[in-house]
Amino acid sequence: MTPSNENELTQAVLERLSSAKDPRFAQIMQSLITHLHAFIREVDLQPDEWMNSIEFLTAVGQTCTDKRQEFILLSDTLGASMMVVMLDQARAKSRAALGANAATEATEATVQGPYYWAGAPDLPLGANIAEGVLGEPTFYSGRITDTAGQPLQGALLDIWSGDGEGNYDMQLEGSEMAARARIRTDAQGRYWYWSIRPTAYPVPVDGPVGRMLEGMGRHPNRPGHIHMMVSAPGYVPVTTHLFVANSPYIDSDAVFGVRPSLIVEYESHPAGTAADGRMLDVPYWSAHYDFCLETQAT
Ligand SMILES: [Fe+2]
Questions:
Q1: Which of 54, 225, 275, 281 is the most exposed, fewest CB within 10 Å of its CB?
Q2: How far is the CA of 227 from the centre of ligand 1 (A)?
Q3: What is the pTM of this model?
């Protein structure tokens, strides 16, 4: 078919999918082409705007390095990452073998963000995962259970955090891995470790996504949060954050990641002996949170 107008053009492109071998890929491309064509027509995209778009996407790709992922940032700031996270968790929930004894909802997921760095050290319970990192000391503790409230022994918390000035190790020139650790629960499903109280920070604004945010009249800031992937064999893993209650931008996260169930009150303490016996010669904070994992559907 040789298209002679806009409608026929869309149809012609869609027809070329008829020989696609993977039906899921064909479904995704069919929808993408349909929406892309409709979008171009809806905004009546001009040739110079089309070229700007090409140059923008090119710049997004060129800004990526082994430590900077501008495409994830683009996805995050457009709410696309959070949409995928929400759909994925809803899917896991509907598949889960939720028994009649389910007492607790599984911990809600949020965006992974661009700063995950695989290979964090395995540290023992009670370790300070942010040794030498700028920021106010914080004692983190809680439990990891299943939805029936049963403790999960050996469940893994894979944690990463920015420092007390909002910078991640990956962003600091020549920095080693810092404020990252893998910690496992004890026989009662308990965990505890030390880190810092995370502060609000802007996503990187010196690249194309920063210019896009500026063009949209949006601020680039995220409220204070600490990241973790929580997992245990036989359970649906969850990638999430804990957010610092009352942190600036808690109501306007640049990547739409805040969920009320993930907001934690950080309690302040004077210098002294902390709950795990550690002596602090400066004031410190504590944050308590219980995680809950859904049983993996078989
Ligand atoms: Fe973060």
A1: 281
A2: 6
A3: 0.91
